[in-house]
Structure formats: structure tokens, C-alpha cells
Design brief:
2 domains; about 300 residues; alpha/beta; three-stranded mixed sheet; UDP-galactose 4-epimerase, domain 1; Rossmann fold; binds NADP nicotinamide-adenine-dinucleotide phosphate; globular
Amino acid sequence: MAEKVYVVFGATGHVGGPVARRLAEARRPLRVVARSAAALAAHAGAEPVVGSVDDPELVRRALDGAGAAFVQLPPYFGPGVRAWQDRVAGVLADGLEAARVPYAVALSSLGAQLAGGTGPVAGLHTLEERLGRVPGLSVLAVRPGYFFENHLSAIGVMRSAGFYGGALAPDLRIAQIAAADVGEAAAARLLALDWRGREVQELHGERDLTPVEVARALGAAIGKPDLAYAQLSYADAQAGMVQAGLSAEIAALFVELARALDERRIAPLEPRSAATTTPTSIEAWARDVFAPAFRVP
Ligand SMILES: NC(=O)c1ccc[n+]([C@@H]2O[C@H](COP(=O)([O-])OP(=O)(O)OC[C@H]3O[C@@H](n4cnc5c(N)ncnc54)[C@H](OP(=O)(O)O)[C@@H]3O)[C@@H](O)[C@H]2O)c1
């Protein structure tokens, strides 16, 4: 019998991209889903499905005949974020149930055990709950820490003001991770299909980091070893995000997320171990990803 297809949602993103590449390298039949056909074309040999994950018909088509799926709630910047996330969680769950897919890896987050007060992470709580109720589906929720990629949004202020500004307390030591490492870990589990029922895998990154340590690593990579971290009030951080073009609703959700991190409500539930630790250091990421992005005019 032909091997069943793997379906990767968000296959052109920071996490989905590495998931799809790793499955392709392992020569698994592959279907990749995103809205940009041009970007999906990078996955030569995979079957592209072009459209939005909030479209039930598209999701059903994408999952038809699948043996395993990598699903996520992509970043969403339109109005009604939480309602959109909850709707997409339902569309994905219904699609997986209709296609009788036996395995799914869900891209979740530390803090997804909480139903609210965590900004966009609350949507991942819904996603885990909805997928957990799909009959016959074994769901692995991968819960990573704070992506290094979030630091890319600081480049504008860094260039104009010369410091790294953020809402987190300067000495807040949290799990931070390269998104590509999340993809690698998810792909390894998808290749192994080694879980049954509901399981959670936390990913804590290479080591825990404070914003001051991150600023030091980023600064060193861009030739500014004295780059300082400046803590902004929640109000100033929110205003800055709005000024940078985000909606007031999304800025408020990100501030709620920052507050949940500061108050340690979003934090690992298990101790760091070999299984939760991933290879890429902030220094390596700063050199390979951040510095080239900073240099783009
Ligand atoms: N940032 C963090 O610190 C963090 C921490 C833990 C968990 N997470 C989770 O990780 C998720 C993904 O983050 P990421 O950085 O990998 O995002 P990303 O790089 O922006 O990737 C998102 C992917 O989804 C696709 N996509 C976006 N909107 C879509 C839509 N409406 N329908 C279908 N596909 C869509 C994108 O391609 P197209 O735009 O071409 O469609 C892209 O392939 C977040 O949403 C969050 O749930 C994030």
C-alpha cells in the first residue's frame, strides 16, 4: 500500500518550513499548505495546497488521505484575533476528524495549559482542547518557549534609537528558542510517530535568557557590543506597537502576553532536560539570522 501523505500547514514559516524540509529529506510523501503559491514552490516535489486555514473546504481538501499532519494557528493581524483563532482551531479539528487522520503535531506554546490571560497563547489552549476531543486522533502538542525570531521586530527601534526596547523585565530569565529548532523537533516526532492519545512536549531552547543577555548577544553580532536593553512600561510598549502599525487589539494581546511572562504564569511545567533542550544558542542565531536581517537596508 502506498505510504500516506504528511500534511504541513504553514510550510513556508519559521517552524513549518523546517518541518517540511526535514520530511522531504526523509523522502516522505508531502503536502504543503500556505496562502502564497510562490513561496510554496520552494518545496519542490511536495504537493502544494494554496489557501487560508480558516477555509473549511480548503482544510478538508488538504487533509484528505493524510497519515499525519503538522497544524498551527498562524499569526493573525486582522480584527477579532481570539475569535479567529478559536474558529480556526475548530476548522482544523473538524478537518482532521472528517479525514480520520490518526496523528497530528500541534504547534502550541508554553502557557497553553491556561485558558486565558496570556494574549494569543490562549488560542493555543483552545487548539489543544479542540484537537484533544477528536475521536481516534493522537495529538502531540509541542510547547516551545519564546521564539528568537520575535527579536527581529526590535530592529527598527534599534536602528533609530540605538537600544533594544521591550516590555519584559530586564532580569526576567525565560526559555527562548530558535524557531527552526522547534521545526526540527516536531519533524523528528512526525517521522517517529511515537505517541498515542494526548501528549505534550515542552521545548526550552539552548538555555534560559534574560532580555539583557539577549541584547548583549544581538549587539555583539551587529558590531554594537554596548547595545543596551531598555524596559518600557506596558503602556509605552503598547503605544510603540500601534505606532509601528499593529492594531490596538493586537498590541493589547501582546502586552497581555508580556505581563503573563513577567508574572511567570507562562513558564515551563517541567524541568529542563536533554529532551526539552535544543541546540541553537542565541549567539549562533544572532550571527546567522539576526545580523544579516539587521544589515538589510
Ligand atoms: N513567536 C513566538 O514566540 C511563539 C512561541 C510559541 C508558539 N508560537 C506559535 O508559532 C506560530 C507560528 O509562528 P511562526 O513564527 O512560525 O509564523 P510564520 O513564520 O509567520 O509562519 C506562518 C506560516 O503560516 C502561513 N499562514 C499565515 N496565515 C495563514 C492563513 N490564514 N492560512 C494558511 N496559512 C497561513 C504562512 O504562509 P502565508 O503567509 O503564505 O500563508 C507561513 O507559512 C504562532 O502563530 C504561534 O501560535 C509562537
